[in-house]
Design a protein that fits this description.
The complex is a heterodimer of chains A (1503) and B (493). Chain A contains 46 helices and 52 strands. With 1503 residues, chain A is an alpha/beta fold. In chain A, the strands form twelve sheets. In chain A, strands 43-44-45-46-47-48-49-50-52-51 form a ten-stranded mixed sheet, with helices on both faces. A seven-stranded antiparallel sheet of chain A has the order 7-2-8-1-13-12-14, with helices on one face. In chain A, strands 32-41-40-38-37-34-33 form a seven-stranded parallel sheet. In chain A, a hairpin with a 2-residue loop joins strand 22 and strand 23. Chain A starts with 18 loop residues before the first strand and ends with a helix. With 493 residues, chain B is α/β, with parallel strands linked by helices. Chain B folds into three domains: 134 residues, Alpha-helical ferredoxin (Fumarate Reductase Iron-sulfur Protein, Chain B, domain 2); 164 residues, FAD/NAD(P)-binding domain, CATH 3.50.50; 168 residues, 3-Layer(bba) Sandwich (FAD/NAD(P)-binding domain), CATH 3.50.50.60. The N and C termini of chain B lie far apart (50 Å). Classes of the chains: A alpha/beta (1503), B alpha/beta (493). Chains A and B meet through helix 25 of A and helix 5 of B.
């Protein structure tokens, strides 16, 4: 490692590293060991190379590894050569370890190991240096390479046999790791290098910072014919990190993990609390002392997951049992889960919170090997079983080619399911059998019936009396309520149980800079998932989510007893005043509570901090005295007893109880007046609250209701219930943004970045949260609280609360960058081409001395040697670097959209289509030379209008991973806004609602993003591929991953930008300003030597040349501007974009209002010209001639000397840390990514279909295919689109026949006129974005298995497809036809979430569907064969009707099935057709309600 | 906003006034309120803008745009729409002490900057203000509410016009003891004697408010001119702070031949005497300048000029002419006068409407400059010699009038009223006490600080700012009260 002291701190956050990968295993079911298995494992690994990553140089991989059973014969021979003899298998353990390269350090380390061996009663049998061949590995990898040795040990006494040996080896490994690594006892010079890859009598791990192709060469051991195993578990890593680390490779000792654990911070904290109470028959307390802690925050999420699985397993639970505890199925909303299994999960919920996040995990203990998939099934896992007892499971089908004749079963792992092979029993144990057995181990249901209580079981308490109106007013003032809180937040929630919506982003000061009183939660920015893991849809996939919370103790997690589940269970975490009243006086079945006042004295110096410390001690004392539930309450405040902000108090107590190991014994309840918004609840839960009673919010609702300010028909009870429901909805959304499904795992997970609190506060109350620019301390917080408190008591006369002014501008409210004056001067400047007016506007934006808004507002330029303005590159050059923000046609009017496009084309800059597609009429230039084509075409999660032709007509394709205003969330264009035009452009029909899912269903991790980039680069080879991210902690790391995934551009969006509608809480509370994200990105890309191969763009409230200059100095070479451009077009920040009532015709589709649009391209051109000139002036004053030479020069920036509010408490040294540019690297984009375009099957196809392409002559050609052939069809479709536009070729012109296992994205964006026929199987994204082509797939003709019950294609087929036909003989995976808007497909069975978000097309399912069919389906029709009469239960009925097919439907259906039979020879289809009269009655027609209505309306209008 | 699409569904409808033929026979107010359901409909037109330009003010093209007291217009519009009149009142009173005045006499710059007015008629904001406060009075919601405790601090306010009243009201609410000095016989300043009764009823509206303030503990001392009847020094000794709210009452004169003749008066003299006589004796005392059977010429096209026209009409003048030196404003905004600037457009105000009803024509003549007042043998004005002007740019970037040869004419006149604005405060008191004034003769006291060069003496309203709007006076009165309050908390006396 580099010397830490010599490196200036940067914004890089190591804990935010991500990796994801390809995993798999091959095993002999009967446990027969062979060298072939080893070879097969290596082959499989190589065939998943594309799922791994490589760093700054192609030879350095991110990591690859493989786990085997201990190859005794091989090792015995090798050891003999070294002069020592191994005992028989099971009597010795073999360890693999990395040492520090320094020989003396290694010697000292071995010395230490020897000491511990002696202590623990081990004999050292010997060491064996593992031979390696490093000729092929990359330079970076070589520099970091560590010596690898094997150690062989045996126990002096081993009465307990192999399992005892395994436990002792575990203790040895943990003990030596702690002892050698921990600072206090470290071996000098070791520097965290010593690392055990494995230590076991059963398994052994070979891994390193290698590419998959290098592994076999690097370890000559693996080639030895004696090296045998009955299993091989492999892992190919794609990491965002390229800083060399050999030990980060996988597999670990028990698992290989593909995915992310999002809740890791909380899981580690809970584990810390839990392990304090570990008791086990298998380990003595002394042994626990040696091996604890189990988890280590310094390790990756996967490594920690491995550790907890290992602990649970070695303490006596079976490996599958441990997996089920840690990664449970979604049992709560599961209506037809077996009762005993449900009880099993419910019981274990009291022992362990779910480790949440998308995950596919392969696991083994050497005897059992298996795999499991998280509840949402967001990772692919395919398997085959052969006649000769080989089982192969991998992220991709075809990764290990097997002869088709041998295959007896092809399947996939399903969400929440487990697949286990017991090598000792010699059989596959199915999920059902396995879990039923485990569920019956104990009478869990009986235990639960006794243990679980709910508030309704409790006797009545004595809730506090309601406040008088005067008390209420004072209370509202004390807790900072504003009129807006009532009007915009609480009122709407009580009225409609929904989240309030707002528009136009946030242009208010960052919370620490504001002069208004701030809720403490405002300093916390929600983190969200982008790229590295998918957010969840909390509405359409609600079934996997849970808000269950419980109050009670956590008992010893290594044990199971009826007492373990004694919990007071809440369906959701919001407590009514009545429920809290009960809990305050509870005293039964071991439940007791204590109420602790959360107040401080206004008279005491440092009263706040002292009171917090006292509260912590009181809380600990209460727990020690046996109180299980602690209620932190500010109810008893007075003029001199001041409420402590609830989050501050709660955070401090939670952390204190963790430190004192008391947290697991208690539950924390908050009763606070300052809790009202969803975000307040989220922060409290995220920092450890089990339940919250927002009494003042309830009282405020009472007042609104009494005054008649709520909807008339509401009862007060309904209003309360609505509010609670709205909070629940909002919480689910916040969890889902991060990809977390349950409150239990969000609880204490600290998924926030803190912006504006100092490290003392963070350390005490929010330990280990990310916080990078310092900020307010206890003193400043106390002063602000006291000021507000005193004011509350001195405003007796005024009965009207303060304005707020956050969502709507108010003179006496919060300040906004875009106030009336700024809007006026900007419009005046642009309309009249008035540079003076521009300067007045720019001054209003830039002069942030009295009121700082932004981080850049606190920075200034250091004086530099200036140059004459003429020497600066001309404005026309600079303007090419501008783009406008992504705003869809649909969110803004055609007039506003095309005006921007024309203007940007005129100046050589780029406008952005947004996510709604683009009318093909705009692709050609107009006679006057103007061009309405958007240079940037966006690809968002909804994939609306994304066709081959759309992509072909782009200069840049932007993948929108997140949006500043609502990162991690999806969107919805309600049906009433979809008119004929918008419907057409989005390939839908008017009146049908269009949903954009929260995740891209083809991007659940970084290697998936790489795949989409691979697709798009082939769909248009000339276009730059841009990936849009939103600033947050770790975005730099993500950006590195994006660079490695070969994007050409990465956009770092600020949290504050964003037009159009978003939930208010998301606009304000999710994401960070671009300054931090951009600087982090620039620094991290440089650190990883990736900066010079990617263009960095930024956007978010960029308004002036000064903003552009600072963006450039922080690392961006291109910039996006949206809001200001809209204002130039006439936008006056109504902030009503979501209502379609924009009075200036910008954000509306209403034809009357569109007429009011007055913007002109000239205005927009004027504005961008002014911006460029303004920037040039700054450049001249700083002495920069070009933008390129200016990028990243942070040394030119310095914090302003004391200006503004609270400004002195910030520390920008990390933000402004000077960049270190490695030799041969650069600080702006200088070289092109290697897109490996030559690697494509399409070239050979193209060769054979030239005639068809040039002269439309029909052609048929045949090819072999394997899983490494990806995105087949994209290039050829692109070529057709270039020539034949959206129309394509006549049907059947190009008939391509393939044989084998197709890689991902087979047929992607295939256009009309191509037929893809595949004999074999295919992977994920089959027919993605299909644009008219025909797809036919059937199993190998030689296959012995029954096609209709075996897997043939992967997950997410036909995602975003717009037209075409498909016939699939076999089963498809999860999310079949997700967001399909036109494809007609026949398939024989599908997984969960079929036809999700579908808006058009026809789907015929001849077999079973999984759960949640038709979720969010708003258009199109599905016909499903209801074999068991249970289809209705598997269908999400929220938006669809189930009807019997009508006469005309049956004709279409029969026709489709007939074609299916003809094209695929499906025996299933044949059977149905033969018995049509009977079979056709078993079909159910699934028809969205919206769609029905829309079709009826269309019929009426066309009739 | 109440109704999201209200602005698309409802057309602007203005409140009506009494029939001009009828109303000129009376000194009663000519306003007629709108029906409640109509007001609710009109309130539905408010778009509840994210950036409500109506609610704030900034100076554009040297005119006020938007509301100087930052009325919470979108919020009370919403309450009006929902029929929540009491809530609307609370919101209205949060920013404006005297909505009954502004609701009648304000030129409503809020409507000029109403976002809806970018491309449609503005919301009828002013009338909603009127409706809210009048309803409140009708319902008895406006009651004296004296402070519960007194601080013992004494404040003298010189001048009882809108700024003085606003400052008095604010300080009194804080528990300070406020005395308001007024040289006229009735308090109210401009509100009492500057604006005629038919526009702002003295008993029903002005005195109604002053009575409430009296009941709340404010002392009004009339017929007392500071600097004449009582010295400022004495006042200083007996009070903790003094606020000058003396207004800008020094009228602009017309220095042309014939000015010294009889029958030529400043508008304020005309209006003041008229109102006093009306209130004292219903005009029976004859102590006013009558226009009866006279040819009246009003020089000046502003609001005061209009008030003169309307008053003369009620005197049953023989004819009335109003001379305006500027161009006739356009019917709609010109390109150079875009939203949100105050719209410089042609308006037929109440006086002109009445003139039209009586004489069949708008009394205004534009681009007319008076060159000479021609007197008869009794030195009484007989006619005016006027000429048309053309506006020419000058070297300093301004514009200057230039007579157009051959356009001279003569207008018969028995009564000439000079209504050409005001130059600033009267200087006597200021000079006597060494209070610093600026080039424009206004008291030097920076906005926001309001302190004069003498400690403890503040200045606000037109005497500080120069001639302006009632609503600015209220703004300044409120603002100076805040500063004064802060000052009082600092001093120990």
């Amino acid at each position: 490692m580099m010397d830490k002291n010599s490196m200036p701190p940067t914004l890089y956050v190591p804990s935010m590293e991500h990796d994801s990968c390809g995993i798999g295993f091959v095993a002999h079911i009967k446990g027969r060991k062979s060298h072939q298995i080893v070879q097969d494992g290596l082959t499989m690994l190589i065939n998943m190379e594309h799922r791994g990553g490589c760093g700054c140089e192609p030879e350095t991989g991110d990591g690859a590894g493989i786990l085997f059973q201990v190859p005794h014969q091989f090792l015995a021979t090798e050891c003999q050569k070294l002069g020592f003899v191994l005992p028989e298998p099971g009597k010795y353990g073999v360890g693999m370890m990395f040492f520090n390269p320094n020989v003396e350090v290694r010697q000292a380390t071995k010395q230490r190991i020897q000491e511990h061996l002696d202590e623990l009663g081990f004999n050292l049998l010997g060491y064996r240096p593992v031979p390696v061949n490093h000729t092929e590995i990359g330079e970076t990898a070589r520099q970091a390479e560590l010596p690898l040795e094997q150690i062989f040990v045996s126990l002096k006494e081993n009465p307990g046999g192999p399992s005892e040996l395994e436990r002792k080896l575990f203790i040895l490994r943990k003990y030596t790791t702690h002892s050698i690594g921990r600072t206090s006892t470290a071996v000098p010079g070791n520097d965290y290098e010593f690392y055990w890859l494995s230590l076991s009598y059963k398994t052994i791990v070979y891994k390193g910072m290698l590419r998959t192709t290098q592994l076999a060469d690097y370890f000559p051991d693996l080639a030895h014919p004696d090296f045998d195993s009955a299993l091989a578990l492999v892992h190919s890593r794609f990491s965002t990190n390229t800083v060399p680390k050999w030990k980060l490779a996988q597999p670990f000792r028990y698992i290989a993990h593909n995915g992310e654990i999002n809740t890791i911070r909380g899981n580690i904290n809970w584990m810390k609390s839990k392990q304090a109470h570990f008791i086990s028959e298998l380990f003595t307390p002394e042994e626990f002392d040696l091996l604890l802690p189990i988890c280590d925050k310094a390790h990756s999420d996967s490594a920690n997951l491995d550790s907890i699985i290992e602990m649970l397993t070695l303490a006596g639970r079976s490996l599958p049992h441990a997996m089920m505890m840690v990664i449970p199925e979604a049992w709560e909303g599961h209506d037809f889960m077996d009762e005993d299994k449900k009880a099993f999960y419910e019981y274990h919920a009291s022992l362990m919170e779910p480790w949440d996040g998308p995950a596919s995990i392969s696991f083994t203990d050497g005897h059992v090997i298996g795999a499991t998939l998280d509840r949402n099934g967001l990772r692919p896992s395919r398997y085959v079983v052969t006649q000769d007892d080989i089982v192969v499971m991998a992220s991709e089908a075809g990764a290990l080619p097997v002869e088709e004749e041998r295959v007896i079963k092809k399947g996939r792992l399903q969400p929440g399911r487990m697949f286990v092979v017991d090598l000792q029993e010699g059989r596959i144990i199915e999920d059902e059998e396995l879990k039923t057995t485990l569920a019956h181990e104990h009478p869990y249901r009986e235990w639960l019936d006794r243990g679980i209580h709910t508030p309704s079981d409790l006797p009545e308490g004595t809730p506090d009396l309601p406040l008088t109106s005067k008390e209420l007013l004072i209370n509202q003032r004390i807790f900072g309520y504003t009129r807006e809180d009532l009007k915009k937040i609480i009122g709407p929630m009580a009225n409609a149980a929904t989240e309030p919506i707002g528009s136009m982003g946030a242009d208010i000061p960052l919370p620490p800079f504001s002069h208004q009183s701030q809720h403490l939660s405002n300093y916390f920015k929600q983190l969200f998932a982008q790229v590295s893991n998918p957010p969840i849809d909390p509405i359409r996939e609600k079934m996997i989510m849970s808000l269950r919370s419980s109050l009670g103790m956590n008992l010893n997690a290594l044990d199971a007893s009826p007492d373990h589940c004694r919990q007071l269970v809440l369906e959701q975490p919001v407590l009514t005043k009545e429920d809290l009243g009960k809990i305050k006086v509870i005293d039964q079945d071991g439940f007791t509570s204590r109420t602790l006042p959360m107040l401080f004295s206004s008279e005491r110096r440092n009263g706040l901090e002292l009171a917090i410390d006292q509260l912590c001690r009181d809380a600990a004392a209460a727990v020690e005295s046996g109180r299980v539930i602690l209620i932190l309450s500010d109810r008893k405040h007075s003029s001199s007893r001041v409420p402590i902000p609830s989050l501050l108090a709660l955070g401090a107590v939670h952390q204190y109880l963790i430190r004192t190991k008391l947290r697991a014994k208690s539950a924390l309840v908050v009763e606070a007046g300052d809790v009202r918004e969803t975000h307040h609840f989220a922060t409290l839960i995220g920092y450890g609250a089990n339940a919250i009673c927002p009494y003042l919010a309830f009282e405020s609702i009472d007042q609104l209701w009494e005054k008649g300010l709520l909807n008339e028909e509401l009862t007060l009870e309904q209003a309360h219930a609505n509010y609670i429901k709205a909070i629940g909805y909002g919480l689910r959304k916040i969890f889902s943004k991060m990809g977390i499904s349950t409150l239990q795992s969000y609880h204490g997970a600290q998924i926030f970045e803190i912006l504006g609190l100092n490290s003392r506060v963070v350390k005490k109350c929010f330990t280990k949260s990310v916080s990078r620019i310092e900020g307010l301390g206890f003193g400043e917080l106390e002063n602000a609280i006291l000021k507000q408190h005193r004011a509350a008591f001195s405003q007796n006369n005024d009965v009207v609360l303060e304005a707020g002014g956050i969502y709507e501008w108010r003179k006496d409210g919060e300040k906004h960058l875009f106030g009336p004056e700024a809007i006026h001067y900007l419009q005046k400047a642009a309309r009249n081409k008035d540079y003076d007016a521009y300067k007045t506007y720019a001054n209003l934006m830039n002069s942030q001395d009295d009121q700082v808004f932004t981080i850049r507002g606190l920075l200034e330029f250091q004086k530099q040697q200036s140059i004459p303005l003429e020497e600066v590159e001309p404005a026309v050059e600079i303007m090419k670097r501008f783009c406008t923000g992504a705003m869809s046609f649909g969110s803004i009017s055609y007039e506003a959209h095309s005006t921007l496009a024309i203007a940007m084309n005129r100046i050589g800059a780029k406008s952005n289509s947004g996510e709604g597609g683009e009318d093909e009429n705009r692709f050609e230039r107009k006679p006057n030379g103007d061009w309405e084509r958007s240079a940037i075409k966006q690809v968002a999660s909804g994939r609306f209008g994304v066709t081959s032709n759309y992509l072909t007509n782009a200069s840049e394709i932007q993948i929108k991973m997140a949006q500043g205003a609502k990162p991690g969330e999806g969107g919805q264009l309600p049906g009433h806004k979809v008119d004929e035009w918008i419907g057409r452009v989005r390939y839908s029909i008017p009146g049908v609602g269009l949903i954009s899912p929260p995740p891209h269903h083809d991007i659940y991790s970084i290697e998936d993003l790489a795949q989409l980039i691979y697709d798009l680069k082939r769909a248009n080879r000339e276009a730059r591929i841009n990936v849009k991210l939103v600033s947050e902690a770790g975005v730099g790391t993500i950006a590195s991953g994006v660079a490695k995934a070969k994007a050409d551009v990465v956009l770092i969006s600020g949290y504050d930008g964003g037009t159009g509608a978003s939930p208010i809480s998301s606009i304000k509370h999710a994401g960070l300003p671009w300054e931090i994200g951009l600087a982090e990105t620039h620094q991290t890309l440089l650190r990883n030597k990736l900066r010079n191969r990617i263009t960095v763009q930024t956007d978010g409230q960029i308004r002036t040349g000064r903003d552009l200059a600072i963006a450039t100095l922080l690392g961006a070479e291109e910039w996006g501007i949206a809001t200001a451009a809209l204002v130039v077009e006439g936008c006056i920040l109504m902030r009503k974009c979501h209502l379609n009532t924009c009075p200036v015709g910008v954000a509306t589709q209403n034809p009357e209002l569109r007429k009011r649009f007055k913007g002109k391209p000239e205005h927009v051109v004027n504005f961008f010209t002014f911006l460029a000139e303004d920037l040039r002036e700054v450049m001249a004053s700083l002495g920069f001639r070009t933008v390129n030479e200016m990028v990243g020069h942070t040394e030119v920036l310095t914090p302003k000397a004391k200006v503004g509010h609270n400004s002195s408490s910030f520390d920008f040294s990390a933000l402004l840390a000077p960049a270190k540019i490695a030799v041969g690297d650069g600080s702006f984009k200088q070289r092109e990514q290697d897109h490996e375009l030559f690697l494509s099957k399409d070239w050979s196809i193209l060769n054979q279909v030239k005639g068809a392409l040039e002269n439309r002559l029909p052609v048929k050609a045949t090819f072999d295919i394997m899983n490494t052939d990806r995105s087949v069809g994209a290039i050829i479709s692109n070529e057709i689109s270039k020539k034949y536009k959206g129309e394509g070729l006549p049907h059947g012109t190009i008939h391509l026949v393939f044989k084998g296992s197709a890689g991902q994205s087979f047929g992607v964006f295939g256009v009309h006129g191509i037929t893809f026929e595949l004999e074999g199987e295919a992977n994920d994204y089959f027919g993605k974005g299909l644009s008219g082509a025909e797809m036919i797939i059937y199993p190998h003709k030689v296959a012995q298995y029954d096609p209709e019950h075996n897997q043939i294609i992967g997950n997410v087929a036909f995602y975003g497809a717009t037209s075409g036909t498909a016939f699939i003989r076999g089963l498809a995976g999860e999310r079949f036809c997700v967001r399909n808007s036109g494809v007609k497909a026949v398939v024989e069975g599908i997984g969960d979430h079929g036809c999700e978000y579908m808006t058009g097309g026809v789907v015929v399912v001849l077999g079973d569907t999984g759960r949640n069919f038709a979720a969010g389906m708003s258009g199109g029709i599905a016909y499903v064969m209801d074999h068991d009469g249970l289809f209705k239960q598997r269908c999400n009925m929220a938006s669809v009707d189930l009807d019997p097919p009508e006469e005309t439907d049956l004709e279409e259906l029969q026709d489709l099935i007939h074609t299916h039979w003809i094209k695929t020879e499906s025996s299933n289809a044949e059977r149905i057709l033969k018995n049509w009269a009977r079979e056709c009655q078993r079909f159910i027609k699934v028809m969205p309600k919206d769609y029905k209505k829309a079709l009826r309306k269309l019929e009426l209008t066309t009739a | 906003m109440g109704k999201i699409t209200g602005f698309l569904e409802v057309d602007r409808k203005d409140h009506s006034n009494k029939d001009p033929q009828q109303r000129i026979n009376s000194w009663d107010e000519f306003h007629v309120g709108m029906k409640e359901e109509d007001i609710r409909d009109q309130a539905a037109r408010c778009m509840d803008c994210g950036v409500p330009f109506c609610h704030t003010t900034f100076s554009l093209a040297s005119k006020t745009s938007g509301c100087p007291v930052n009325n919470l217009i979108p919020e009370w519009n919403d309450m009006v729409y929902r029929g929540q009149w009491q809530m609307a009142l609370q919101l209205l009173l949060k920013t404006n002490n005297f909505p009954e005045f502004t609701g009648r006499v304000c030129p409503a710059p809020c409507e000029g900057s109403c976002v809806l007015s970018i491309n449609a008629p503005a919301v009828t904001i002013k009338h909603h203000e009127y409706a809210i406060i009048e309803r409140a009075f009708d319902e008895g919601w406006i009651r004296p509410c004296p402070p519960l405790e007194r601080t013992g601090k004494l404040i003298a306010i010189i001048g009882s016009g809108p700024s003085g009243l606003a400052a008095a009201d604010q300080l009194n609410k804080k528990g300070h003891s406020v005395s308001v000095y007024e040289r006229a016989d009735r308090p109210g300043g401009l509100l009492m004697y500057g604006i005629p009764n038919m526009k702002l009823d003295k008993r029903k509206v002005v005195e109604r408010r002053i009575d409430i303030m009296r009941q709340e503990g404010i002392v009004f001392i009339n017929n007392t001119e500071i600097g004449k009847d009582v010295s400022l020094k004495d006042l200083q000794e007996s009070h903790d702070a003094i606020i000058l709210c003396t207004g800008a009452t020094h009228p602009r004169d017309l220095r042309i031949p014939g000015r010294t003749g009889n029958g030529i008066h400043f508008a304020m003299e005309f209006l003041h005497k008229n109102t006093k006589s009306l209130l004292d004796s219903n005009h029976l005392d004859q102590k006013y300048i009558s226009a009866r059977n006279k040819n009246v010429v009003v020089i000046g096209g502003g609001d005061t000029g209009t008030d003169c026209v309307a008053t003369a009409l009620r005197h049953q003048c023989k004819s009335v002419t109003q001379l305006e030196i500027l161009e006739r404003p356009p019917e709609v905004r010109m390109e150079g006068n875009p939203w949100p600037e105050y719209p410089n457009v042609f308006i037929l105000d109440y006086g002109q409407e009445e003139s039209k009803a009586v004489f069949g024509r708008d009394p205004r003549r534009y681009r007319r400059m008076t060159q000479e007042l021609i007197l008869d043998e009794q030195e009484h004005v007989k006619s005016l010699k006027t000429v048309e002007v053309r506006w020419k740019s000058d070297s300093k970037g301004g514009i200057q009038p230039e007579p157009v040869p051959g356009t001279e004419d003569e207008i018969p006149a028995d009564l000439v009223l000079l209504s050409m604005g005001f130059l600033g405060p009267e200087q006597t008191l200021l000079e006597q006490n060494g209070i610093t004034t600026n080039q424009r003769s206004n008291v030097v006291a920076e906005y926001g600080k309001f302190t004069t060069n003498i400690e403890g003496i503040f200045a606000a309203g037109d005497c500080r700012r120069g001639q302006s709007l009632v609503v600015w006076a209220i703004n300044e009165g409120r603002a100076v009260a805040e500063v004064c309050e802060e000052y009082l908390s600092r001093i120990v006396k």
